[in-house]
Amino acid sequence: MAEEGPPSRRVNLSGGPSGNPQYGTGPERVTRAASGSPIPVTAPGAESPPTHCPRPGDSLDPYFRLSYLPAQLLDLDGAEQFKWVFETHDHWIQSADCKLLLDRIAAAEFGALWDMGHTSRVGGEDPADSLAALGDRVFYLHVKDAVYDTAHEHAMNDGWRYVPPGTGQLPIGRALQLMQGQGYEGYVMFEHEKRWHAELEEPEEIFPLFLQWFKRLAL
Predict the structure, then answer these.
(1) Overall pTM > 0.85
(2) Is residue 71 within 8 Å of residue 43, measured between CB atoms?
(3) Average pLDDT of span 201-214
(4) Residue 189: which of 137, 141, 146, 145 has the closest Cα?
(5) Between residues 103 and 170, which one has the greater pLDDT?
(6) Would residue 1 count as lying in a domain?
(7) Residue with more model confidence, 199 or 11
(8) CATH number, residue 103
C-alpha cells in the first residue's frame, strides 16, 4: 500500500442520450494516456445523483443515466488499458447505492474510488459495511480526517471540520487496515482541502504529519 501515486485523469462525456453541456458532447472527449501504467480515471457522471431518466419504450430506471456514461467509455478502443472509477462522493456515499451501480456495470476495469471520509462522515457508515458492498472493486483511496465540533468557527455546515489525519474522529486507520486485509496494493491519496478551507495547515506542514501517521499504521 503506497502513500503516493499517479494522478487521476478526469474525462468529460455527455450526460446521457440527450447530452449534458457540463460533461461535454460524447466519448470523443476522452483524453488517452500516451504510455505507462493504467491510470485511475474518474467519470464525472458518476458524481451525480441517481435520477429517473426515461428512455423511449423503457421503464424509468434511476441508474440508467449513470450506467450510460461508463458504458460509452468501456466500449472505446483501448478502454481496457485503464481503471475507470466513480468516487464515493456527494450523493454516492451509501454503500447500497454503490453496490447497485457496481452490479449494473460488471466490467472488471470499472470500480470505485473509495473516499473513506465521505462514507463515514456523510454516509454514517462503518468502514466494514462500506467495504462489504464495494468488495474487491476498490481501485483507489482518498483519506482525510475530521472532528464533529459545531461550535468551532471553521465548522462546515454539517458541523464537521478537517484536522490532520489520525487526530480526528473518522475511522480511516481502521478502513486502511481492512483494505490491507483484503490484499489492496494500490495507492492512498491524502486530500488536503486548503483551497476550499484557507484556515488549514500549509502543505509543507501537513504532508509530513500525514506521512508520520501513515507510517505508524505499519501497513
Answers:
(1) no
(2) no
(3) 97
(4) 141
(5) 170
(6) no
(7) 199
(8) 3.20.20.150
